[in-house]
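tokens incoming
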């Protein structure tokens, strides 16, 4: 299980009475979200952002994408990504940002467990079969990726706060 090695709150970006958001709260908010935004970098350096679904398992976010998709091509060129989720409300809620490095998942047992996690979270419409080192769900092969966190942020909005979590091996 990935857990932060350091947690701190930046008083410049919060209310005076704000305290750090516990990692367990942030992790649960991230795991429970239904929609996420993945930020990658195109090979020419331009940013790319897309919405997608994700599951949180064993302390890491997991995503999937067809190898021909822009996000998969970007990951192949630069595995550093940012995955975010939150609420559009200005007051109340918690926005979460996870920065990390992507690794492709190909182990059949891990893929089966992840396929079950996707279906449990999102329902039968998101059933995947494990095939050729990835997922097949009717739209062709999708690669499955694990995002190992290096840094994460929780942006509280009642009270306003910014909590930063740093993970072992993270360079940010």
């Amino acid at each position: 299980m990935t857990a932060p090695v350091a947690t701190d709150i930046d008083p410049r970006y919060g209310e005076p009475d704000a305290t750090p958001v516990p990692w367990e709260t942030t992790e649960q908010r991230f795991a429970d979200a239904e929609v996420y935004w993945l930020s990658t970098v195109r090979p020419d350096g331009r940013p790319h952002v897309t919405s997608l679904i994700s599951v949180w398992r064993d302390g890491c976010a997991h995503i999937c994408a067809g190898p021909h998709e822009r996000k998969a091509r970007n990951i192949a060129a630069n595995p550093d990504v940012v995955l975010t989720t939150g609420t559009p409300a200005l007051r109340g809620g918690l926005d979460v940002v996870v920065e990390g490095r992507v690794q492709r998942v190909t182990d059949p047992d891990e893929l089966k467990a992840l396929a079950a996690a996707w279906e449990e979270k999102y329902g039968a419409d998101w059933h995947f079969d494990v095939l050729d080192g990835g997922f097949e769900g009717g739209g062709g092969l999708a690669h499955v990726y694990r995002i190992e966190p290096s840094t994460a942020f929780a942006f509280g909005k009642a009270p306003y706060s910014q909590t930063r979590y740093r993970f072992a091996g993270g360079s940010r």
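note: DSSP finds three helices and eleven strands in the chain.
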